[in-house]
Amino acid sequence: MAEKEGQSGDKGNNNNDQTSQISDQERDLAQTALAEFNKGNYNACLQNLSKLESCRPNDVKVVHNRAVAEYYRSELKKTDLFRKNLNQVCQQAHVNTDDLDSLEDVEHCVLYYNQAVILYHLQQHHAALRIMNKVFVFIEPMEEGLAHRVCLLLIELHLSTQQPEKALSLIAYIENQFVSTDNATKMIGDKELKNLEKEHQERAPVTLDAATDAFRLKLLQYRARCYLSTCALKACKREIKSIITSANPVTSNLAPVFLKGNLEYLRGNYKKSIKVLTSIPLNNSLNIFKESGESPSVLFYNNMGCLHHYMAKPNLAAFYLQKALQENGVALNAFPKPEQGEMLSGRPLFCVGGSKAPSLMYNLGVALLHGGKPTQAFDCLIEAVQVYHTNPRLWLRLAECCIMAHKQSNAGSFDFSARRKDLIQGVIAGGVHRKIILNPNIWKDSKYSCEAQSYAIPMVSLEFSSLCLRNALLLLPTTGGEGGPPVMAPPSPPVDPRQVPYLRACVLAASAYVALCLGDPVIALEHAKALLVQTNLSGVHKLLGRLYAGEAYVLLDRVGQAVEMLSPESVADIVDPCIRPLRPWFPQSTNTARAVLQYNLAVALALRGELDKAGDMLKQVWKSKSPTCDVPIHVIALALYIELLLGHTDIARNIIKQNCPQLQR
Question: For residues 177 and 140, what is the distance between their CA atoms, to the nearest angstrom?
Answer without folding.
Answer: 10
